[in-house]
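Let us practice reading a record.
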Amino acid sequence: MLSLTVSECLALKGRAHALSPTVMIGNAGLTEAVLKEIAASLKIHELIKIRVMAERPQREAILAEICTKLNAAPVQHIGKILVVYQPSPEAHQIEIKKMPRHKGKPLTKKQLGSR
């Protein structure tokens, strides 16, 4: 399973916000056919959303299983939506940029309060 830094994870969450779920896992659970479809989608898009119709403990187990079998990184798990990332050298559509650092003096409490 791949691991991401916090800044990489935040950048991927931002990119995934506008995506729609490409794969749906129903009552049958994570079958080989669904796993192949997820692998094909990851190969093309690198970052996908998956809708899972199961209870929370089962969703966490499904996310862990997907990431270990496909060597992908879990990005986000909110409700019934899972976001998974797998870098693909063929597609290489997503370039992860590091978050810009603030230069100069830190903001005062008054400046922070007015924001």
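A brief commentary: Helices lie at 6-16, 32-45, 56-70, 109-113.
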